[in-house]
Design goal:
45% of the residues lie in helices and 24% in strands. It is of the alpha+beta class. The longest helix has 61 residues, at 301-361.
């Protein structure tokens, strides 16, 4: 009898020797426990709520990484940023003590419901390729997604290239009303997000990231309120390239034009130089035209700068043409008057010579012929004293009015052009600095 009992105990012990207690220490056990290993996608579509009157709260965190491009002609801006979302799902929880203290698991983004985020200003872009979410044991989800998007932005280029632009990036979910289903809130303040964004900012190109502000509001559509968060990004243009390539060369060409205008060259040479300078300025205007948008409510200051400089150069050419016309007109009049005066003088000499000949033929009593001849010669020849002192004989034309008129006219035109240019550049500087 004892022998049978011993055999039974030995058989039972051998039968149960390989059966160790089962411990749930793998991620697969959590997936089986949550019943998400099947192909049922219903949990991905259903809003995770236990109380229908309380909305699901989604916390957002925004961090700007790079400003990729700003296209003024298309009024678009391309950003690269990282968006972090946090929310809770009460149907996806477990006790870590039952699973060897495993407190989180990483799952595909389409495993459970995730907030559908819509960017209002988006016109084109690349979707996030990081489609995973971190699930905590208490049902808290954390999703970090990088985005590369192109947004429409109203670019104000009045002070180009010394402009500062402000663009909005609005995140909303128009599927769930804010009052009952979904509320979006920011996890951190604007200053904290700004500090982190500047720490991770990668680009050092034309645009400098200067400020970030956050606005939370409710957008009403069809008598329903939807939660919206707007990130306002301020950026400042670095104008060094435009100053070196456009503004300084234009100023240098205009200074050269002024130097030619006030220079001692002939008027014909001045016109040739001025036309060459205008052609060089027009090439810079073509380069500027490729950077500015085709339409705008107000013309940028730099357009007024180029247009005013171009018109001032045209005025300088017209002033030179006018002076050249007046100079040639005065020369022609001078030549006509000189020829007329020469003809008149010759005729007077011939008349006096005829009078002397007649006096020589006429007998005058006691007066000797030599005395009459001397008087005739004195009438034909002007006094030497008057000629030596530089006093012209009566009846000779001198171009005194011409010699005094042309220098005065030239000075009036040149200095009026100079003061007009000074006023114009002062006005442009005030507009750019205001």
């Amino acid at each position: 009898m004892m022998q049978q009992v011993f055999v039974a105990i030995l058989t039972f012990s051998l039968g149960t020797a390989g059966a160790a207690p089962k411990y749930l220490c793998t991620y697969y056990d959590i997936v089986d426990y949550l019943n998400i290993s099947s192909h049922d996608k219903l949990p991905t579509y259903i809003l995770p709520k236990t109380n229908l009157k309380e909305p699901v709260e989604v916390k957002l965190d925004f961090m700007l990484i790079a400003i990729l491009s700003v296209v003024e002609k298309l009024q678009t801006v391309s950003f690269y940023f990282v968006l972090n979302l946090e929310w809770k799902n009460p149907f996806a929880t477990w006790d870590p003590r039952d699973f060897c203290n495993i407190s989180h698991v990483i799952l595909p983004l389409d495993t459970y419901w995730s907030p559908p985020v819509f960017i209002l200003e988006r016109v084109d872009g690349q979707n996030s390729d990081m489609n995973y979410v971190v699930l905590m044991h208490n049902g808290s989800f954390n999703s970090t997604r990088p985005f590369q998007v192109t947004l429409t932005c109203s670019l104000k280029i009045l002070k180009f290239p010394f402009d500062t632009q402000t663009c909005n990036l609005s995140l909303a979910s128009f599927l769930y009303p804010a009052a009952t289903d979904l509320v979006m809130k920011t996890r951190r303040t604007a200053s904290e997000s700004m500090k982190d964004s500047q720490g991770f900012f990668l680009t050092d190109g034309e645009w400098k990231f200067t400020n970030l502000s956050i606005i939370e509001f409710t957008e009403t559509l069809d008598d329903k309120g939807f939660s919206v968060i707007t990130y306002t990004i301020s950026m400042e243009r670095r104008p060094t390239l435009y100053v070196l390539n456009l503004i300084l060369p234009t100023c240098a060409l205009y200074l050269l034009d002024m130097a030619v205008l006030f220079g001692p060259s002939s008027l014909e040479e001045k016109i040739n130089f001025q036309i060459a300078i205008i052609l060089g300025s027009s090439m810079l205007a073509v380069i500027l035209n490729n950077s500015l948008p085709t339409s705008s409510n107000k013309p940028p200051v730099i357009v007024l700068f180029f247009l005013g400089t171009f018109l001032l150069m045209i005025m300088a050419v017209l002033d030179t043409f006018f002076l050249l016309y007046q100079q040639r007109k005065s020369r022609r009049l001078d030549k006509i008057l000189r020829s007329f005066q020469r003809r008149k003088t010759t005729q007077n000499l011939f008349n006096k010579a005829d009078v002397g000949a007649e006096l020589a033929k006429t007998p005058l009593g006691n007066q000797p012929m030599t005395h009459l001849a001397k008087e005739g010669l004195q009438q034909l020849n002007p006094p030497k004293k008057a000629q030596g002192e530089g006093q012209p004989a009566k009846g000779h034309w001198q171009p005194l009015e011409h010699d005094s008129f042309m220098p005065v006219l030239e000075k009036v035109l040149l200095y009026s052009h100079f003061f007009l240019s000074l006023f114009f550049f002062t006005l442009i500087s005030v507009k750019w600095s205001s």
